[in-house]
Amino acid sequence: MSDFDFVEGVCTACGFVIRQEGVEEALSQLRESQAMSADNPRDSEEWTDVFKVRNSTEQRVATALEILEQIGNQFDLSSDVRLQVASLYGQVARDRLNDGRHTEDVVGALVCIATRQAGEPLPISLVAHRMNRDSRDIGRLTKRLKRELNLENADCLPESYIEPLCKSLECTPTTVERARELVQSARSEGLVAGRNPVGVASAAIYAVESGERTQREIAEAAGVSRETIRVRLQEFRQGGVIDV
Question: What's the whole-model pTM score?
Fold first, then answer.
């Protein structure tokens, strides 16, 4: 049974019957689009160009997958992550957890969850910024969907954010390793628990970069405020993790 077998049912919004094969076709086209893009990006055909939407429920699925393609391209998400987001959206639709929720916010929250599961988490604030959505809405929805989908183990430690952020900032492997060591030292001093892991990771990167990157650059890449980085740095200094 595929992840989208559930869609054979009645649309609560309009009363139409949505067929299993419709959404399965969408997923198939998504896979083919990813494979073709890898082989020949210019000649690849968007799945939305060929997938025929039959009713309003399928339209919601089509819209969600189109948003996924757009945000996936912005962040250069892997095919595995995109398919995981599609699969999670399938569970959301099956359980009608998208009723009354903006499709953009649902997809954004699922992108955050799926990238965490893949060990390459994207900060909620950054995802919201790229999607032109409110980070508070996506943040709240991320927490709710984790609970509703029984994905409470999808949280990430600060160390998980260091490599993706360093990749975005084009930092060296040495920076990645030193930032991780700094976070571990901060944890031993009780300076990690209860803090935003993205803020902790951002402050660690700034500290080890020794002025190579500005707080503004790191804050924009991480989707946090410069004040958050400054507060974490002050805590690091007070805890003896970095020099005053």
Answer: 0.64
